Amino acid sequence: MSPFFLSTRTSVLGALALATAVGLTACGGAADAGDPTAGASSSGSAKAPFFSELPAAIQSAGTVNVASNVEYPPFESFDTDGKTVVGIDRELADALEKKLGVKFEFNNIAFDAIIPGLDSGRYDMGISAMSDTVERQKQVSFLDYFEAGGGIMTTTANPHGIKALGDLCGLKVGIVKGTTEDADAAAQSTECQSAGKPALETTIYAGQNQAVLALQSDRVDAFLVDSTSGSVVAAESKGELAMGNRYQQMPFGLVFPKDSMVLMGVVQKAMEEIAADGTYKSVLEKYKMGDHAVDKFTVNGVTK
Q1: Is the pTM of this model over 0.85?
Q2: Distance (Å, rounded) from C-alpha 107 to C-alpha 69?
Q3: Please, which residues bridge with residue 201 across strands?
Q4: C-alpha 108: how far from its chain's center?
Q5: How far apart are CA 109 and CA 103, in angstroms?
Q6: For residue range 213-235, what is the model confidence (pLDDT) as tens digits?
Q7: Coil, helix or strand for 56?
Q8: What is the pLDDT of residues 151-206, one digit of tens each?
Q9: Rounded distance, CA 71 to CA 209, Å?
Q10: Full DSSP string of 233-294
Q11: If phi over 0 gives left and psi between -120 and 50 gives alpha, with beta otherwise, what is residue 203?
């Protein structure tokens, strides 16, 4: 999601000594405090190669508490039963479970509540197609795992002939609360006004489903959304909607509290293993997203 919150996708090896070697500056927090192997049981260690490296609190709980906004296909959405989480992120989490020996429990919350939830310690990490941005890095850390970028969704009829951000001046535009597209729309409004044109009439929605419905019912002329998810929505719209090309490149990252260096390092090592054994690319290709794969799982890869 290109989700943006003034609070979206350097290598960390997980232990403090190794983290120093790669230049990370985050400090250990409550979940990461002390010896990360403390409390490991022999049976737990046998479950998976990286179980003993997890923070003791997570080893004890047997669960990674995940914050996610589960309405963003193909990354996460509910199956037909309305309960089971499916999609790219869920399948990557399934693969991580095998490497870490703990369950990844998805908690469906508002997108703009993810970073505050991580900051407060309510969740261990966020998995929700969140764009890595410098502004967000002030509050959380990212392990980039997917190449993405914002785009413009319109109806297939597209009566205003919208093809680029510059075509949105004076038009009604839908945005999901907390996404990077909010900032994109604000910047474009400024450009429109500087050129003597009317600003965008932006409406903020709580989730993607509401924004799509607004577009389908002609309450907005366009919807700014990450092009990957937007392409899936458009393809499933029975010809009603169309997704334009990306107007930017921005990676998605798995999201961690700033003080969660140990957990992030272990997850990074596990991601590297599922990439090496082919699982990572296989999951992306299943959803026709193989060309969005990253070569390295970089920490806070966006620098400007």
Answers
A1: no
A2: 8
A3: 172
A4: 13
A5: 19
A6: 999 999 999 999 988 889 889 99
A7: helix
A8: 999 999 999 999 999 999 999 999 999 888 999 999 999 999 999 999 999 999 99
A9: 7
A10: HHHTTTTSEEEEEES--EEEEEEEETT-HHHHHHHHHHHHHHHHTTHHHHHHHHTT-GGG--
A11: beta
Q: What is the mean pLDDT of the chain?
A: 86
Q: Are 252 and 3 in contact (CB under 8 A)?
A: no
- Extract the tokens encoding 223: 């919807």
Structure tokens at 75: 């990354």
Supply the DSSP string of 97-128, one letter for each residue.
HHHHSSEEEEEE--GGGHHHHHHTTS-SEEEE
**Residue 59 is which amino acid?**
Q
In contact, 9 and 144? CB cutoff 8 Å: yes
Domains of the chain: 16-148+251-292 (3.40.190.10), 150-246 (3.40.190.10)
d(CA 79, CA 76): 9
Tell me the two tokens of residue 2.
């290109």
